[in-house]
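quick one before i forget lol
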Amino acid sequence: MGELREAADAIAEGQLVVYPTETVYGLAADATDPAAIERVYDVKGRDRENPISMAVPSVPTALSHVRATDRERRFMATFLPGPVTVLCPRREHVPDVLTAGRDRVGVRIPDHRIALRLCELADRPITATSANESGEPSALRLADVDEPVREASAVLLDGGETGGIESTVVDVSTESIHRRGADADRIERWLAAN
């Protein structure tokens, strides 16, 4: 618990944290703090036109940051927590820098004990982006995290080896899968049937 509390405190102070999920290692910052989000872009060398998703501990928490239709809520209830990122219309307080100025934001509820506890303790949405430099492979173990990301992070949480398949990114409103990952076939079946 001590290391998780330290990580949550670091996020509250605008710092970066590496954390495990059921897919790959993620890089956390306060997803409501534009300066912290800018640090994530800088450390990853990520294009500012490429939005970053947020991770939260529950669907009710997600709904305080997005406006979801009944169908999107049913989708969330079916697939979250899990290796899925759902694109929903953001509420006004979600920073432009997180969404690259778009009106939708990706929401993720990780199905991983450490990631969920970090989301709970942080008491704010955290960034849900892989803990690697852009263009480099995603980290499946803490030892795989790129050195610049490690050095820029205040806390590194070790959860052992992750599942390795990135989350599927889906826009339920347009029935489109933006990135195929875990559960993609099941998601397609749900979209066709619902």
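fyi The chain is about 35% helix and 20% strand.
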